[in-house]
Amino acid sequence: MASKVNSDRCWRGVLRGVDMVSRNRVVRTEDYSNYCGMHDSYLAFLPDDLRPDPGLRPESTWWRWRGGRIHIERVPRSDAAVRMLLVHGGGGHAAMMWPFAALAARQGFEVLVPDLPGYGRSEVESAGAVRYSDWVDCVADLVRAEKAADPRPLVVFGASMGGMLAYEAAARTGMVEAIAVTCLLDPRSPLARRRIGRFRWLGRFGAPLLVPVVDGVRVPMRLVANMTAMSNLPGLTATVIADPRGGGVGFLRTYLCSVPLVEPENFTACPVWLLHPGADRWTPLAVSRMFFDRIAAPKHLLVLDRASHYPVEDPGIRQLTTALADIHHWVAGG
């Protein structure tokens, strides 16, 4: 009970601040200590020499979208030639992406990481009413807004379910220079559904058993997704499972029924880098390759050795870091 009270106090503290509106962004003045240590909890699993300088902290900003406010963490760099938008997956949030955002900043990117609707600190009228299509629209709209505000080249990095969101954003906007993803899960595939879900029946029968009448029920992701396979590091898996984020059943149902706007055979929006963990027990490489191998655009595959679904293990995390540097160099025209 005490931890619940402390958590509530922490979030109330986070939501205090002064709004400063610039274009369609609302910037809040907040102290990093209000983040309740979530960022550092995830950073702790990076190899020591890859952890950022303690002085590197994200800035909290807010973007008005569909009557709500999307929380976006940023590492501004006015001298950066390339910007990177990082997109989390189901059950994730910006703080969970901080280790990868910090590595991207270290490779020269200006970085932004949104909390997608219903997760993290973003504010929506009803989290239980959020559908997968809202996430697709949100990421695409954010790409458009960011490109309108800043013409620098933009790369979208998608982790887990965020991989398909990055793909959709590039296909829908035509404004992305490249996408980098850790996996590409097409939920139309029974094999993909079996790997996504905690229960085998999800792969066999899929969305029809998740009837709309229960769409508004909110459940922790750990109860429906195979989150015990998040990492091969027990401590990291425990951290993720304990993270109190939950999504509506309607979100899962609409995700399982989703169809990409552009089939991979017709996707030519930008090059695609698949940076796939080599020891991913949740979504093995074969699942992603069913979609990736069909993509018409120039594409690159890198298997991250000994890395799990949340890829922080050596040597995979170093390979990912090098790949980010290579992508930056390529997009910047070096």
TrEMBL record:
Record flagged with keyword Hydrolase: yes
Entry-linked Pfam families: Abhydrolase_6
Highest taxon of the lineage: Bacteria
Residue ranges annotated for the AB hydrolase-1 domain, each copy included: 85-315
Keyword annotations of the record: Hydrolase
MF terms in GO: hydrolase activity
Gene3D superfamilies noted in UniProt: alpha/beta hydrolase
Hydrolase recorded as keyword: yes
Transmembrane segments: none
PANTHER family for this protein: ALPHA/BETA-HYDROLASES SUPERFAMILY PROTEIN (PTHR46438)
UniProt name for this protein: Alpha/beta fold hydrolase
Organism: Nocardia arthritidis
